[in-house]
Amino acid sequence: MDVCHVCSEPVTNPLCPHCLHETVRQWVEEEDQDMARSIWRLDEVFPDMAMASVHCIRCGRGVEVCPHCYTKEVRDILGKDEQLQAQFTRLFNFHLHAPPNMA
Hints:
The protein is mainly α. The chain has one domain (17-95). It is 48% helix and 0% strand. It has helices at 17-31, 33-40, 42-45, 67-78, 82-91.
C-alpha cells in the first residue's frame, strides 16, 4: 500500500486529487466565484501519479496524495470565509476536525 506524499500515512481512501478537485471545484463555483479561482490552481499542485500502486476507484489514476491532505488544502484556502469553510467540512469531511487538544 502506498503512503501519502504529504502526510506519510497509508492511502486508505483511494480517491485521487483530480477526481476530488472536479467535485470540489463544481461546488465552490456554485458558492463563490472569487474563491473558485484559488481552488482551480490546486489541480496543478497535485499532479497525476501514474506509478502509484493505489489507483483511484473513480478514474483509475494513481493516488499518492490522500483525500484528507487534498481537502485540508482546500479548507485552508476557504479559511478566509468561515461559513463556506464550515459548509465544506460538512460536505467533504475526510477527518478534517482536529482533536480538542490540537485546535
